[in-house]
Specification:
The chain has 442 residues and is an alpha+beta fold. The chain has helices spanning 3-20, 55-69, 80-92, 105-115, 122-125, 142-147, 170-176, 184-194, 210-223, 239-255, 267-273, 287-290, 332-342, 345-352, 361-365, 367-372, 376-388, 400-415, 420-441, and strands at residues 44-50, 72-78, 100-103, 149-150, 153-154, 157-158, 162-169, 229-230, 233-234, 279-283, 302-305, 318-319, 322-325. InterPro entries: Bact_solute-bd_prot1, SBP.
């Protein structure tokens, strides 16, 4: 997030706190006076997280948390790639120099659970002595709560809600005289109509780096009735998966900007913001910048719609980054107080007003947000997507990052132009590698 957003968040928190009229150890968003927020007064904790844009805003509110609890907080934020590399190393060494950690269960879940790197948050949530009665965990809808679990245990509380959708240029679609596509075949036809590389306008953009492709590709896979794993066997080379890989690769290879096979996760949205792309399919994290006329040439021209269907119904994924407790920390209880505060209704509401994809239903439903919502079409698409979403954007195989790399390479080769027998050969090779990881799990 930008500094402007952080300042806006601080102001929102201050107004909320003043309006509550509370005092003593009573939290600004809570009305009860029996919960002991000061139980860990004087403790210090360290929060180690992947910075997806929330860290600066967290820092802006820490003075409030310390005033509420007496707990001081140090935040160590790292870019996502470095974080994914460093966290397993620190957990392997049983490091206790941080107390709260970031985790994305879709990627980390099985590996972390197998290695004992998660703290079960269920006992905290179920204990009225550690969780304020107004925390309202049910405010996270069922699909979101499922995305927080690994092996039926709640291991994280999400600070964001990711789901897939399609961003497109309304003006270009209208000029082409086409309705909003609802199938992959219709998007292919629309992209072909708009595609004009001579004028640096490209029909469709997608992620290209192998381990990044699984996020958007999962929507292709499920819509073509495929699965990552079937009956305990890797399924990357089934007819359904191959069709999905073929569609992903050809949509990007035929209509994508130059160099698409090397696109990291932010690049499709950046190309779109520059006015170079008609449409792209990706997560719901880009709308704020895309609708900002100081950052985007297409602000005010953007349409939003759910991911397409093919032989099966559309099935976007739902998930995201969240806070967990380092199992080797000696300050787990104080860490939970931080997580409870950072994922509470007030913080989610304040962040939602800045454009953040809150995982709490109340943040999306608040009158302050609905009255100020400048992209109601986006809101409707995101909320409807979470109703049909599946919490599985990666192969359910450990280690998660390696499994993503294996599965994503097939999509990457499709973007490079592989089709037919060549793509099948790549899928066969990668399927064997994924099966090797599955076998190692047994």
């Amino acid at each position: 997030m930008t500094r402007t957003v952080a300042i806006a968040l601080t102001a929102t928190l201050a107004v909320t706190a003043c309006g509550a009229g509370g005092g003593g150890n009573q939290g600004p968003e809570y009305t009860g006076d029996t919960f002991d927020w000061k139980r860990y007064d004087g403790q210090s904790i360290k929060v180690y997280v992947a910075d997806t844009g929330q860290v600066e805003s967290l820092r802006a509110g820490l003075a409030e948390f310390t005033q509420l609890t007496g707990i001081t907080v140090e935040i160590e934020g790292s870019d996502v790639t470095s974080y994914r590399q460093n966290l397993p190393v620190r957990l392997t060494s049983r490091a206790s120099d941080f107390d709260v950690m970031a985790t994305f269960p879709e990627v980390d879940g099985l590996q972390f659970a197998k290695n004992g790197w998660y703290t079960d948050l269920g006992p905290y949530l179920d204990n009225p002595g550690t969780t304020h009665p107004e925390y309202d965990f049910e405010d996270f809808r069922a699909g979101i709560r499922k995305a927080m679990t690994v092996e039926d245990k709640t291991v994280t509380v999400l600070w964001e809600m990711q789901t897939d959708l399609v961003y497109y240029r309304k003006d270009l679609l209208k000029k082409a005289g086409l309705p909003v596509p609802t199938t992959f075949a219709e998007w292919d036809a629309a992209a072909a109509t708009v595609h004009d590389p001579g004028n640096r306008l490209y029909g469709f953009a997608l992620r290209g780096i192998p381990y990044q492709t699984t996020t958007p590709f999962s929507s292709f896979l499920y819509a073509h009735c495929g699965e990552w794993v079937t009956d305990g066997r890797a399924a990357l080379n089934t007819p359904e998966a191959l069709k999905a890989y073929e569609v992903y690769g050809q949509l990007g290879a035929k209509y994508g900007p130059p160099g698409i096979s090397g696109f990291d996760w932010p690049v499709p949205s950046q190309q779109f913001a520059q006015g170079n792309v008609f449409a792209f399919l990706d997560v719901n994290l880009f709308v704020k910048d895309l609708e900002d006329p100081t950052k985007s040439r297409v602000a005010g021209k953007i349409g939003y719609t759910t991911v397409p269907r093919a032989d099966c119904d559309p099935a976007p994924f739902v998930g995201g980054w969240g806070y967990g407790i380092n199992p080797f920390s000696a300050k787990g209880d104080a860490a939970w107080y931080f997580i409870q505060w950072a994922t509470g209704k007030q913080m989610n509401h304040a962040l939602k007003l800045t454009g953040w994809p809150s995982p709490r239903a109340s943040a999306w439903e608040s009158p302050e947000f609905t009255q100020a919502d400048t992209t109601p079409e986006f809101t409707q698409v995101v909320l409807s997507s979470t109703e049909s979403a599946r919490a599985r954007m990666n192969p359910p195989v450990t280690p998660g990052v390696e499994a993503r790399e294996i599965a994503g390479l097939v999509a990457n080769k499709g973007l490079e132009g592989q089709t037919g027998g060549a793509l099948k050969q790549t899928a066969d090779q990668q399927n064997s590698k994924l099966q090797g990881l599955l076998d190692a799990m047994r």
